[in-house]
């Protein structure tokens, strides 16, 4: 098999890096090296930023209608190439092909939203705000934007960033995850095929040094980050010190509250899919289930459902979840499982020793389900990012709300109930930025903003929706008066009044 050499993308062209540091990209189901990715040099990052800075001079003046038509073409190309993109995701990430296709679909939603840029970027006007004075606002692009994405959604996360950024007139430098970059690079190729001009969308690769250079760079005006809390917090501080705008979507510990009046089979099937889909490698996975009252009696049904889920390679049609992305991820999950047992949690489903026929070298981990979990335990406090579900029991809805609100993270939470009153009470009193009601993964559609909160987010504005338009633009307010040619001044006005 030919190993792909992952290029950079600078000034509208794929460019081979001259870096001496390259990393293997590995199929997590087989450990086969499928690609190599460079850790770009500082000079190459400078080239990408310079290309974006130069392109901004003309791109910012391209009419909204033309930018819209590029987005329309891009969404058509993504739709036509969904199967190819899904296969690349599955090969390098490990998620199942249906899950990968679903990811492409969620990314496509953002591009479709960007197709409405002709109405999204409108300003406001007040005619005759004062005597023959009009006041109006313009939503103008910032300049060069940048994005740094995590491995778990190599298509969706870039789509959370560059389509709206460039649709609003900015240019862009993207650093995708070095663990699964090929699908992202194919997306960038499609963007250029759709008509994105040279220099408007650039790609560099690397690790902490490249990320820090992006955060520090004076010519980059805004940075979007999706990844771990540790890295996001460090980059947020660096970006702030460099005077740039930043949004950081970070770690999570999401909870699914199950009320005893919920539809039993629907609730169990949904919470299992949320917890274990993509082998738990989702920042929006519901990794903690809070069973309320008599719903605590459903524990064995949940465990039985977990035991019946199937682990396999992403290409296996009946697999529910694939391998973890790397051997290091597998080792970390198994270490945390051992910690859970040592700290007193009860292991009802033990996925250790998972073997998948024909794939002896894969990063496969079976499903784990713990009960009797407390907030002091490591498996509750840490984001495991693996197929691990913690179960907690409480007596009342009030206790469930208090339990969720006590967690420092606020990415997402869900409740399963058939009571409108309970659902409304939950959505009102829960202190979490994204809430699902009988929906296990409450990622909103792209024309609403991604609104994680508290410890899961830094920055006031999130990706997608109206907040993304605000993030990628700056408001300029104009106060204008046009004098009649024969108008004669009535004298000097030394007050603050517009007159």
UniProtKB/TrEMBL annotation:
It is an enzyme of class 1 (oxidoreductase). CDD domains: ALDH_F6_MMSDH. Residues 16-478 form the Aldehyde dehydrogenase domain. SUPFAM superfamilies: ALDH-like (SSF53720). It holds the Pfam family Aldedh. Keywords: NAD, Oxidoreductase. InterPro entries: Ald_DH/histidinol_DH, Ald_DH_C, Ald_DH_CS_CYS, Ald_DH_N, Aldehyde_DH_dom, MeMal-semiAld_DH. The keyword Oxidoreductase applies. Its EC number is 1.2.1.27. It comes from the Bacteria. Signal peptide: none annotated. GO terms for biological process: L-valine catabolic process; thymine catabolic process. One of its GO terms (molecular function) is methylmalonate-semialdehyde dehydrogenase (acylating, NAD) activity. Belongs to the aldehyde dehydrogenase family. This is methylmalonate-semialdehyde dehydrogenase (CoA acylating). The lineage of its organism: Bacteria, Pseudomonadati, Pseudomonadota, Gammaproteobacteria, Oceanospirillales.
